Each structure stands twice: as C-alpha cells, then as structure tokens.
Amino acid sequence: MEGEPTLRLRIFDLNCWAIRYLSRRRRERVRLIGDTLRQELFDLVLLQEVWSEQDYSDLKVKLASCYPFSHYFRSGVIGSGLCIFSRFPILDMLLYQYSLNGYPYMLQHGDWFCGKSVGVGMGVTAPLLSLSLQLHAEYCRDKDAYLPHRLVQAWELAQFIRHTSKAADVVLLGGDLNMHPEDVGIRLLRGWTGLQDAFAEATRFEGCKNGCTLVPDNCFTDKSELLPFPLGIRIDYILYKAISSFTVKCEELKTTTGPAPGMNIPFSDHEAVMATLHIQRQGQPVGATLGTADLALADVVTEARTEVGVGLRAAQQQRYSWGRMAVLALLLLLLQAAAALGTLAGLATEQPFPKLSFCLLAFLALGVLVLATGLHLFHTMEVKILHGTEDQMRMVLRALQERP
Amino acid sequence: MEGEPTLRLRIFDLNCWAIRYLSRRRRERVRLIGDTLRQELFDLVLLQEVWSEQDYSDLKVKLASCYPFSHYFRSGVIGSGLCIFSRFPILDMLLYQYSLNGYPYMLQHGDWFCGKSVGVGMGVTAPLLSLSLQLHAEYCRDKDAYLPHRLVQAWELAQFIRHTSKAADVVLLGGDLNMHPEDVGIRLLRGWTGLQDAFAEATRFEGCKNGCTLVPDNCFTDKSELLPFPLGIRIDYILYKAISSFTVKCEELKTTTGPAPGMNIPFSDHEAVMATLHIQRQGQPVGATLGTADLALADVVTEARTEVGVGLRAAQQQRYSWGRMAVLALLLLLLQAAAALGTLAGLATEQPFPKLSFCLLAFLALGVLVLATGLHLFHTMEVKILHGTEDQMRMVLRALQERP
C-alpha cells in the first residue's frame, strides 16, 4: 500500500427473470429495476435473463444519462439474456458460447434455446475484465442430468478466464452460476482461476442469511424447490481476482431480502447482489495463489473429470440408442419399399393392398428416421465435447502432478 | 538486439484432406506425412482436416519419439479435424468454436457438421500461443453465400486472438483460411490483430509461385476450381506476431510443389507450408503497430460490416420465409383437423371421405411444419450472431474514429 489512490467500485448483479409472457409482473419489475439503478448510482451493472430486447432498449433509454455505456449480448434462438450497463467506457466486447448447453428437445427446460454464454466487457477505468454470465439451470438436485453440461461450462469458463484475463488488471465476474457454494463446479471454477468469492471475503455483509439469493421470503420463488433448503440457497455470485500488481478487497456485500427497498414486490425471483470493491495498485505483483493449493485443485479436477466421464458414458449410450433406432426405421422403410415394389410388379395380387395403413406406417418410419438421425448427430456432438473436456482435464491433472 | 540468444522455430502446416472413404489414397498419404515429419524434425506441426481419430492415433504412435506432445481437438459431429504435434510441452489447451459455420441442410458442403474451430495450444519454449485452424470453405467465389459466415469467423478469430494473446510472447497461427491474400476477411484479421504474413515477410522463399497452396500441378486438386487462377491460389497461411518485448523474423518460407519430395504423390490436395522463424528478446517492448494504421483498419472494418449486413438481411429474409411456411403448414393442419372433426360429427356424409389422400396431406403438412420450424429457429440464431457481430464492429469503428 504505497499511498496509491484507491478506486472504489460499486457493482450490481441481478438475474432479472424477465421472460416475455411467462414471468409475472415483468414490465413493472423491469421499470422498478431501472428506477432503482438510476437512483442508486452503481459503477457497473451486470444483468441476466433480460430475454426481451425491448426490455433492454427501455432500460437503455432510461439509464442513458447515468450509465452511458451498455451492451446487449445476442446469441441462441432467444438470446443470451445478458447485458451490461457501465458508467465507464466499454472498450471491447466478446461473447463466448459454451459448447454444451442442454438438449434442444427438452423444451420445458429451454436452456438450449437461450445459447447460454459469457458476455465479456473489456475496458472501464483500470483495465477491468468484467463478465456477466449464467450457467445451465439445475432442475433436479438429486438426479441432476445436466451436471456434466454445467461442469463443461464451468471448465470452459475457467479456461476462458485464464486465457483472456492476462490483459486485465482485475477480473470481475457476476452472474447466476446455478450452483451451490460447495458444489464441484464452483470449486473447479474458483480453484482453476483463483477467483475469490465476494461473500466470503466481504468485511461487512447485509442481506439474506448466508448470502442466499433464492429465498422463501421472495414471493416469486417456487416454494417447492426450496423445501430441502428452508433458509434458501446461494447461486448468484460476484467473484473477483486481481491479476497484475493490484489488490482487490471487498468492503461490503449486500443482497436484497425479498421485496425491493421501499416497494411491495421484489426485483425478480432472485435477490440482487451488490458489492463495493476497493481496488488499489501495489508495489510488487501479487503472488500466484494457484501454486499453494495444487493438491486441493488436483482433487477438484479429478472429481469434475469423474462427473464428466459419467456424462460421457450417458451420452455415448444415447448416441448408440438413437443410432440403432435410426437403423431400424431405415430397415422398415426398405422393407416397405420392397413390398410396394412387389405389389407393383404384380406379386400377391390375390389380396387387396392396404394403402392407408401402408402410407401411415411409411410416414411414421420416415418421421422416426429423421428424428433419430438428428438426435444421433446431436449426441455425437455431445460425446465429442465431453470427451474433449475430459482430455483437457487429464492434461491439466498431469501438469499439476508433475509440478515440483 | 542485445546479444540475447535467438530461438529458431521450424513450423509445418498442412491441410491434410484426410476424409474417410472420400479422400483418395488417404492411408498412403497419412503414412507419407508421418514419415516425412519423422525425418525432418520440425518444432511444431499444425494439421487440419485429420477427420479420422484413427489417423491421428496412427500419427501419434509414429511420431511419439520425435514429437512427444500432441493434441487432437474434438468438436462438431465429425470433429474439428485439427491437431497439433510439438517437440515442446503443450501446457494448456483451448478450443473456440465459431458461432456460425454454414447450414446443417447443405449436406454437400458439410462445413456445419465439422464444427469448425480454432484449436489453441499454449506453452512450449517461450510462452507461445499457437493456433491451428480452418475457416468455412468457399464454394463459389462469384456468388459466395458463405462470405458473411466466413467474415463472422474471421472477426471472432481476431477478437479471440486479441483477448487471449496477452499472456503470450509470440502468437503463431497456421491454417487453411479459405481466403485469398487480398480478401476482406484476411485484411480484417491481419488489421485487427497486427498479425504478419510469413510469405510476405520471408527473407527467402522457395516453392510454388506467389506462395500458392492450391496449384494445378497437384494431381488431387479440382482443376475446374482453378480455371480462373491458372497459377493457383494461396489460402493456407502461417501468420505470426510478437507480443511483448520480442521480435519475430521469418528467415525462410517453403511450400511443397505438388508431389511430396522424392515421392510420386502429394501429401494432400493442399501444399504444405513450412516456415523457419527467428524469435529474439528485445530491450523495449515492440510498439503497437495498430495505431499507425487506424484509418486503413477503419476502412476494412467498414467493408466487413457491410458484408455482414448483407448476410444479416439475407438471414432475416430466410427466417421470415421459413416462419411463414411454418404458419401456412400449421393452418393447413388446423383446416384438416376441422374437416376431420366435421366428418366425424356426421356432416357432409353424402360424399365418401378420402382417407388416403387426407392422411398423405396431413403427414406432408406435419413434415413441412417440423422442417420449417427448425429452419426458422436456425436462421433466428444466425440473425442473432450476425446482428451481434455487426454491433461489435460498430463499437470498434466508433472507438477507432474517436481516437485522437
């Protein structure tokens, strides 16, 4: 601390739950979020689940005077839902889409259609790399079929941060990670990048108990989801890391506690997370925090690799099943073609040809063939990505174990 | 040049054209490539279009003694086809998939199924970021429907290099860019990253005229493709850039000239590109080459943005057409449902109900509905990505123009 001036940075992070036609009292809540952001001047606002571009445009107009810089990240069928508002210039933008993000046929879960991504904004005051993101949702904790996908996302995110953060002085990540603090994905992300958890590091904390961001006090949360967790769960995070000769300290962390301050409805079904960070230049570069915890990190990577392996085997099984189904449908079609040709050639004329059921069967077989082939291809891609991630993790493990 | 030792790096780059069942004399050529690589010791080998994992495994076994480090990048349905062999340790790996890569229904072009990506290897001697990659193929130069996709890829690649290269001392890129040297995509990539073209910078050159890598002398090239270019075209590149206090010089660049040295067949339908680079540490950091050429760069970005805009409008048109088709098919289905219900309810009993043609029509409508909906969703994603890229380019243009 050589008397260098301190930069105080106030960050607001919120999963807005603004799905057109589906989210309750959406317009009212987006208006409320806009009003609050205008009143309380933050430096950086990271929003997720702003699915409608109209909502973003409305916010942009409303916040133009106090947050002159903003960006909306487009991807997937619906969009990424990510946007950034900033008081300081955003110099460059990058969108990284995860390789895996659920299944297109799980319409009720919808993750695939959103093209879940990390939005990266470079720039502002000190070279600051700020990321806004959301990982694949967890729909059933006990039998979590999406765990391998979420782990691949956590891994890709960690790799992405490692590779892009060298240009920055401070990395800042805010978003809905859809993982509890002790989950393997969070440990993997934090261990492999050295990111620190603002909640754990904060000097002062104010808000829901244990920093929870999905709480029963919020009138929009699904109470049945929270039954095993009566106090709520913490899945929205602000994580940070100083890269070069800087130190970052979290002075204060706050969450909303159900209804928005002074209002009768909450901002969203998630609580907002607000952090005040102190960034200061230091004489010597901060030592690598990674080296000291190599062994623990190797354990986490091993655990994650095991889960990815489980996902890989499930995906291989799916690929095989759908491939077999496609072959069967093709055989049926060929059989039908042979029968039709036989009839045309005048064989078996003693019996009437059942045209209607024949056509129905042919169309059914064709439909199954197309569907099964599509799913076979999709799971083939899934296998490649899971396999590739496993390879990368193996390489990292070897490197970790070979370090003196 | 403060008497620091020079690192001499020999690089081999080849599009191997090793497609199972389709590429002629594949096994023989892969064997030949392996033998040559073993004889002539390069430091780094960047291969593309190694579509079969078996070919990679064979190469790996054969090259294990001289190139102990290697990686195969998995993505897409078929794979990325990219692999790296290195004499020096590969410390970290990253695969970046482009957001856009052709259309799944253009089966004859196949790009979509390959999951075209950039494979990034970090590590080796001096922190060296080496990229192996391939961009979307050009199938018709005069009416190039894939130009916007290739431009989005070139842009994403440039952004990716800008954001990941800060951790490296030298960036090295080898691959089949599927673009002629004067094309807008190459100018965009080079202008926005500051990468230098080994062919243009080489002190000594030996090989095909103008450094061409698709030449009529190669017995595997499609002669009709090369009719407008009797000398051949140059689409395979080795590009490089020194980041921090290093200088890189290209001492020598070579290409093969049809048949492999001492053999009667070529390695591939592309010529191999071999570069010898000199890397030396310098006292002061190399000045930014970007600032000096801001105006020219702004022109290139504007040109690229115009092309992306053309692609955007085409994609919007497609999205609209397929959406309309889906709505029409849905209407037809509803109409049929109404007719069927009417018949069941005993209306219009005086006429026989044409079951067969009714069923055929219903299945046809259903098929069209599914297909059109799928394509509508696909083009929606395409619109989002093209729109997002246009946004990013606009932001960069503004930043370029606002610079003093």
Automatic annotation (TrEMBL), chains A, B:
A single GO cellular-component term on record: membrane
Listed PANTHER family: PHOSPHODIESTERASE, PUTATIVE-RELATED (PTHR16320:SF24), SPHINGOMYELINASE FAMILY MEMBER (PTHR16320)
Primary location: membrane
Pathway noted in the entry: Sphingolipid metabolism; Lipid metabolism; sphingolipid metabolism
Keyword DNA-binding tagged: no
Listed Pfam families: Exo_endo_phos
Position of the signal peptide: none
Protein transport recorded as keyword: no
Keyword line: Hydrolase, Lipid metabolism, Magnesium, Membrane, Metal-binding, Sphingolipid metabolism, Transmembrane, Transmembrane helix
Entry superkingdom: Eukaryota
GO biological processes: sphingolipid metabolic process
Protein name: sphingomyelin phosphodiesterase
Domain Endonuclease/exonuclease/phosphatase: 15-270
Cell compartment(s), UniProt: Membrane
Membrane protein topology class: Multi-pass membrane protein
Record organism: Anthoscopus minutus
This protein's encoding gene: Smpd2
InterPro entries xrefs: Endo/exonu/phosph_ase_sf, Endo/exonuclease/phosphatase, Sph/SMPD2-like
Regions that span the bilayer: 326-349, 355-378
GO molecular function, one term: sphingomyelin phosphodiesterase activity
UniProt-listed Enzyme Commission number(s): 3.1.4.12
Protein family (similarity comment): Belongs to the neutral sphingomyelinase family.
